Amino acid sequence: LKMSWLYLPLHLLMATCLCHSIKSPTTSSQQSFKTDLSNFYHSLILADGKETTVHLLKDIPKRYYFALEEGRLLAPFSITVTPCDVPIEWSILAYKSPPGFPGKATPGDHNTQEVSKSQKAPSMVSTIFNYKGNSVETYMGMSSHSALYLLEFLSTERDTHITVYLTTDTTSGHLYPELPTDPRIDVIGIGHTTVTLTWKHSPSVLQHRENIQYCLLVNEKHNYKSLCAAETAIRSSGMKLPPTLALSLSPYLLEPQQVMILSNSELSIINKVSSGEVRQVCMGTRNTYTVPNLSPSTQYYFDVFIVNLLTNASAAYTGTFARTLEEPEPKVTELKDGKVIHVVLDGKKQKFYSLQYQARHKKIHFTFQLCQGQIRVHITRNGKTVASENLSGLRYLSLKGKMLDTYLVQLRSTEESNSSVKVQASPHFHKPLFPLLPESLKIKSFSKLRTCRSVTIAWLGTQEESKYCVYRKRIEEDQIWRELQSADRCSGPESRHKSEKVLCKYFYDLNLQRAVTTETIKGLQAGTFYLFDVYLFGPSGIPVRYHSKVVKTRKKC
């Protein structure tokens, strides 16, 4: 039976060593080899061609061994070790069979139990590689069929885990995607809230485009040397992260601290952690990317990983960092007596729009007409807050101070969609910009008075004679919500089509209890939705729009 001693079961190999060490004289080198070989009692076999996850306990070494297949004298092999947290120590030891070692046949000697005393055993144990750190390291070497290899791993800081990949097949491709010869990430643009990055393509993208993609990690702490190191850091912050960045970006795996964004074929996950946001973006095979929605004057760290979607294996580019530009001082627009300013606010940026007014009288009158969305106003006088509230409809604020007081009005949208408002500041005795308003700006419809061809509506008036204009618009049922949400309450009849105008009328009543008017709109179509608007015009000619009302005519009469 022909069998290399390397491929005897380990316990039989050890038993044979002990047995023959009794029966035959041993040199000091042989005795050393026998002692060193006892390390294999608590070792595991390292699988060839498979990535192995190894869990390490602090200060307790863990050992794996491997050997070549029988019949291969010399063959290349490589070992890649990826620390997933703290720095570790690891080494590769080669155990070679000494000449005349019990169990190994000598040419011309038919008695394997006899050992030539004249043979001098050479050194049989050697350390061929060792490393300490947290970088991904790969060792490449030539293996001999007469050598047994032991890998030893040690963590001296804390419990951790690593991944180990051994392969003796260097011809059929790589588990890990290849990095370009220059694996650096270049910063080609920096803004107040954006950073643009580019990197050289991986050779793996050109060969296996459909199975490869780039993933970017953005954080405010530091760079990561591997994808598993990044995932470990995020988990240690108290978050449960999907196991693989590239393959687990799906909504049902998200935690409450995570936000997923899908746009333009990019899948992003934003993790809310104590040290700031950790943002992950996978962008396919594009090698240029602009990171949006960053904070001004903040340093960010950027890591790019090339990920094999079939094997989950990844390789890390050399990380970089950049600091966004400082936010410019907010522009302050000056408010002049009686002049109306129309302000449009971007809800996505959530920034304040600032207006400044210097009082020339003790009493100041601020008027706000909310046109769209939801807005919060904050007013300070000489740096001290005098008013802060959410706006609704038309709002008057009268403030009393001293001459030459400086008022700062700050406006901010409270929703993600755009909002707009008209603002006026003037002395208290200034002619009012807006007309006198009724108690309510709602339009009422009477269900019992609805017919197939007409609708009756009513609205409140005031004690001041004013002009009211009624407009109608035919809409579809699926348009109702959009029409009501997007209505610009500051726009006047000039924005309406002439065919939508129904009538204009004047009325008032000194008795507010009787300041109500009704109007029956005829010539409508049966079973149809109509949007009705009423515009109130005051002395200044600036209209105030009542809240739109949708009414459906009867289908059958």
Task: Compose a concise summary of this entry.
The chain has 557 residues and is mostly beta strands. The protein has five helices and 36 strands. Strands 12, 13, 14, 15, 17, 18 and 19 form a seven-stranded antiparallel beta sheet that branches.
Report on this structure.
- This protein has about 550 residues and is mainly beta.
- It has 4 domains: about 45-95 and about 125-170, Jelly Rolls, CATH 2.60.120; about 175-240 and about 275-330, Sandwich (Immunoglobulin-like); about 330-425, GOLD domain (Jelly Rolls, Sandwich); about 445-550, Immunoglobulin-like.
- The chain contains 5 helices and 36 strands.
- The strands form 8 sheets. Strands 12, 13, 14, 15, 17, 18 and 19 form a 7-stranded antiparallel beta sheet that branches. A 5-stranded mixed beta sheet has the order 1-3-8-5-6. Strands 20-22-27-24-25 form a 5-stranded mixed beta sheet, with no helix packed on it.
Question: Secondary structure elements and their pairing?
Answer:
Elements: H1 10-23, H2 28-37, E1 44-45, E2 50-56, E3 62-66, E4 74-83, E5 88-96, E6 125-133, E7 137-144, E8 147-154, E9 160-167, E10 185-190, E11 195-199, H3 203-207, E12 212-219, H4 227-236, E13 258-263, E14 266-273, E15 276-282, E16 288-291, E17 299-308, E18 314-316, E19 320-323, E20 332-334, E21 340-345, E22 353-358, E23 363-372, E24 375-381, E25 384-390, E26 394-400, E27 406-413, E28 419-427, E29 444-445, E30 455-460, E31 466-475, H5 480-486, E32 501-507, E33 516-521, E34 529-537, E35 543-545, E36 549-552
Subcellular location: Secreted
GO cellular component, one term: extracellular region
Keywords: Glycoprotein, Neurogenesis, Repeat, Secreted, Signal
